[in-house]
Structure formats: structure tokens, C-alpha cells
Amino acid sequence: MTALRKFFVRPAGRGSRSPLQTIALYAAVVVFALWVLLPVWYLVVSSLITPQQLGSRSFTYFPTSITFDNYLSILTGSTASAGFGTTDVGARLVPAIAQSFLVSTVLVVLNLIIAGSAAYALSRYPFPGSRQFELAVIATRVVPAIAIVGPFFVAFRVIGVLNSPWALIISYNVFTLPLAVMILKNYFDQLPQEIEEAAKIDGAGRLLTLAIIILPIAKPGLVAAGVLIFLEAWSEFFYSLVLTNQLTVPPLLAGFQSVQQFNWNALAAATVISMIPPVLLVMIFQRNVVGSLTAGVGK
Amino acid sequence: MTASFKNGSLARSDAWFGLKMTTVAAIMMAVLLLVPSALTVIYSLHNVPANGSSFGEFVGFRNYQIIFGSAVFWRSVWVTLWFSLGFVVLSTLIGFAMALLLNQEFFGRGLARALLIVPWATPWLVIGILWKWYADGSVGGLNALLVGLGITSDYQNFLADPNSALMITIIAAAWRQASFAGILLLAGLQTLPSELYEAAELDGANWWQRLQNVTIPWLRPVLVTVTVLNIIYAFLQFDVIFAMTQGGPGDATQVLSILIYRQLFVVTQIGLGSALAVVLGVAALIGGLVTVKLLYRGEAAN
């Protein structure tokens, strides 16, 4: 498992290739790049051209002139000029980004503490029933979010948190908490136990051992879990759609689409903006994250 | 915090400490998952009023009878199965191909691996929006491309045609999931000792034989993981389809999750929607378990 973290490190090529093999290889690389890039390139170009340019057939993959008006109008909220129809989506994008960050960050902190303690306990201090608890946690990954949203809706209406970030901070735990427990349990299992035992012999209590011995060396695992929790919370759409009124970015984008007469260029700009935080975050921490992904299903 | 028992052994106090550390997570899982799941099952046995203010009249299994007797449900089951089949096959195969490719040494490999991250890190809903417009009949870049390459003669409104609509939603969702599969499989490939390859090469095994006899057996556990995850993602997929077609045209892309959403929040038949949700949950669970069983049995047979 540790070798998984060598994602970007170890070269794998062996020997030399014939010219024909080289051509085939680079042809495959081009196909791969086009498969991934073309849709994204289309989106980015769409966000940088005017509705007139977009409307003309055929779509120009290399536009002769670009504009940042779509980004400006959506970020400043001046939606009227950009042809947003009747929606106030432009005015709501920046607040929605702020709410997405708030919900995601609170969840990361909360889950690292709660799932972290549970995962450490499951790894080091098993108790009767701990294995069953672990299996139950893994099994929750197949529970459809949609299957339990009804009770959430009713409960949140009763306690008055419908439409607030709390509705999401509470409900997102359904999938982020098990994910964090699995990743961190898996990570703690890989950490050597010898140092902890030495600390114990030196008379350190369990909590002290956790704080001074484990936490510092567990940082890569905590970062990986944190990034994945953030990603799930940032991307979540369904609960936010049903339990709030376009509070976070995904339901706002979805609502945008259903408005009569809206401007795809502006939606494209908003869509690009919504992709940047998760993509950047994963790219920065890719080494931590990749090794933790397989823990998502358990063993 | 450290628990001390009058007569307790260290092991017992360790277990007690473990239990305490797990309590908050366990209570949260119970409150957030078990209670709502149980409530959904209870809802499914009632004729719940549209505003969901009470359970309403107890009707036993009548909601389930209505579902299993309804053509809409069975069409939705078929759409879900077709979607899942296409999604799982495409994302697993493309992901595997991408992993094999990115495991080779070539100029720009670091950049290519960074690219692999982009579809996976993109929110599902955003992928739906992106592909909806990419496949659009008038402004879509896909049409410009297909016409430019001479594959089609004129712009097609892919999402308006029931046959191509399902196909495009599958491709869009698989576009994301192939990257996820590729990342996991590439990580698995990198743990493959190069000696195994060299030995196979010395034995005169060609590329295909090495793939069959070295690579695939080595990757089997990761392939199982990836396939099971893909099946679960397929069964529970909502965002991409909601953004692209909302289940249409007609009911051509109405997978079970979309049907449940309509029952719960559009026509507000909460009892029926809950019964459907129970059916989907059980199906996802069985689907996951059966796949694990089948794939691991395949492994044991080899």
C-alpha cells in the first residue's frame, strides 16, 4: 500500500522502443489528451467568447478574440447586461462560493477530529464489536443519499435549519464521516506501532501518545482525508438542492440552467470557477490523496 | 480521560478507551443513517400526505405492490441497468487503458498524469452541465468536432433523441469515472515489480501475453475494487442525468434515482418514493455484494 504513494515518482519504462512503437505510443497519448481536454477546452473557450461568437456555427475551438466580460459580470453580480433572463444568479454566485467553502471547511475540521479519534481507536484499541462497526461503516457507502433525504427534510424543518448551512453540515456527515473513518483507519494501520509502545513504556498516557507521537507522523493521512472530505462536500449537489435554496455552488449552477433565456457563456464562466478549487486542491496534494483512495472501499 | 478499573486488566481498559474514542462517530452514524433509513422504511409502508407532516395511513406493502405492478418502474429499472452496464464497462476499460498508457515512459508524462486528475476532481453536477452543452445541438463543441472530422454530416441534437440521450449521459458520467479508475489502476501498476515483466519477456511472452498473465492477475484486487465502486456509482448516479436531461426525453434517461426524486419532490408521493428508495438501496447493496462474490470467486478459480 505504501508503494501506492509513489504515484508520480517511479519511472516504469523498460528497454528501448522501435520507431513504430514510439509512434503508436504518442498517438495514444494524443488520443488520451483529446479525450480529457476537449470538453474542458470547449468549456473554457465558451466562457471567454461572446454569445454572438458562440451562436455562430461551427464552434471555434481557437477563437480569434476573447473577452473576460462573462467572468466580470458573474463575479460582480451585474447580471442584467449579460442576458441572464430573470435570474439573480450572478448576484448569488460569490455568496454561494463562500457558503461552499464554509460548509466544506467546517466538515473537514469536524470529521478529522471525530473520524480521526474513531479510526485511531479502531486501529489501535479494538473493542468487542469494533470489527462489526467497521464493516457497517463500509456498508454505508451503498446507501443512496436519496433514500434518506425525506426524514432529513422533515427533521430539519422541525428544528428550523432548512435552508441554512447547518442542514448541509449535518447531512453531509452521512457520506463524509464513513469515508474519513475508512481512510484514516487504513492509514493508522500502516503506521509503525513501535514508537507508540516505546512512548507507553516511558509512561505516556494514551491521549498523550496520540497527541505527541501519532499526530505529527499521521499528517499525510490527515491531509489526504481532509482533501477528499472537502472534495465530497464541495461537489455535493442532491442534499443541497433538496434541503436548501441554492445555498452552495452546484444547485446554483443547476438552477441557472433551468431559467428561461439564460446565457451559456456566463454559466460556462461560473462552471469554470466552480471547478478551480477542487482541481487545484487535488493537484497540490495528489501524492497524499492517491494512496488513500483505495481505502474508500476497505479490504 | 484514561479509564481505570479496580480489577480491570490493561487490555480491558484499552478496549474501553477504544470504545470511548469511537462513541461520537458511532452515535452520529446511528442518528444520521440508521434512524433516517428506518424512517424511510416506515414511510414506505404508509400513505404519506404530500406535505410529509405525518406518516399518514398504514397501508402495509401496497406501495411495493403498486411499484412492482407499474410499467414506469420497470422501464426505469431497464434504463438503470443499461446506464449501469454502459457506465461500468466504459469507465473500467477506458480507465484501464489510460493506466497502461500513463505507466509507460514518454515525454510529458507528468503533465498527462496531472490531466488525469481533472475529470475526477470535477463535481458530478458540473460534468453534467459541461457535457449537456458540449453535446448541444446548436452551440455544442462535440457537433463541431464530429462534423469537422466528417463523422456526421450535420449538427445532431443528441439529447433530444431517446437513443442517443442515454448514450451521451453514459459517456459523460464515464468521462469522469474513467479518470478515477485510471488513477487507482495506475497506482496499482506502479507496485508491479519490473522483475515480473522482465522474466516474462525473457520467456518470450509478447505484449498481449504479458498483459494477460502478469498485469491483469497483479491488478486483480484493484480491478475488483474499481469495478465494485463503479457499480455503486452507477446505481446511485443522479447529478449527471439531472443536469443533462432530468430523465428525458420522455423517460429515456429516467434512472431509478431520478424517478425517486420525482416521486418525492415533484409529485410528492412520499410513500411510493420511499418504497422505491428502499428498493434501490437493497439493489445497490445486493449489486455490490454479488459483484464482490463473483469477482473474488473468479480470483480463487485462477
Biggest interface between chains: A-B, 107 and 107 residues
> How widely separated are the two ends of chain A?
12 Å
Mean pLDDT of chain B: 89
Mean pLDDT across all amino acids of chain A:
86
Q: Report the portion of residues of chain A in β strands.
A: under 5%
Gyration radius of chain B, in Å: 24 Å
Task: List descriptors.
heterodimer; A: 299 residues; mainly alpha; 69% helix; B: 302 residues; two-stranded antiparallel sheet
Describe this structure in words.
The complex is a heterodimer of chains A (299) and B (302). Chain A is mainly alpha-helical and 299 residues long. Chain A has helices at 19-47, 51-55, 69-76, 89-124, 130-139, 149-159, 165-171, 173-190, 194-201, 206-217, 219-235, 238-243, 249-258, 264-284, 286-293. Chain A is built from 15 helices and no strands. In chain A, helix 3 packs across helix 4, helix 4 (89-124) packs parallel to helix 7 and helix 4 packs antiparallel against helix 13. Chain B is mostly helical. Helices cover 74% and strands 1% of the residues of chain B. A two-stranded antiparallel sheet of chain B has the order 1-2. The N and C termini of chain B lie far apart (51 Å). At the A-B interface, helix 1, helix 4, helix 5, helix 6 and helix 8 of A face helix 1, helix 3, helix 4, helix 5 and helix 6 of B.
